[in-house]
Amino acid sequence: MRNLVAALLEAYRDADSQHSVQISSMRFLSEERQTVLKNMERDLVRVFSSAVLGVAPQIKDTTMLKPVTMSLFGMLNWHYLWFRASGPFSRADYADLVTKLIADGTRDLIAAPVIAPKRSAARRK
User: What total of structural domains would you count in the chain?
Assistant: First the structure.
């Protein structure tokens, strides 16, 4: 997971303006372009969910996988607001920190298993 986090942070290098526009202005894009971007985002979430399971296998098939994955994205997607390349903390340092927070922070999580919704009798006919 650490390498994936580092790669995403590196991809964000010098893309602060583009990232900000993508977050706040997607609604101004055509429906077609929005669909393309949303599908890319979903693919990225799946990749990162798999990476989360690599460091936190105990949350597989539980209700915690999605919130943990989206919390990871929160840490990564908003780092541009405070991060300064000239500061004392490098992208590599932040990749290490985020990975450790997810791995250590999920160690003792107790989560309910994901249960498939029951189909109604009307739907089964």
Answer: 1
CA atoms within 13 A on the CB side of 42: 6
100 or 80, which is more confident: 100
| Residue 106 belongs to domain with CATH number | 1.10.357.10
User: pTM for this structure?
Assistant: 0.80
**Which residues constitute the domain of residue 78?**
2-124
**Phi, psi angles (nearest 5°) of residue 62:** -120, 175
| pLDDT band at 85; cut points 50, 70, 90 | confident
Q: What is the pLDDT of residue 15?
A: 77
| Residue carrying structure tokens 């999920």 | 106
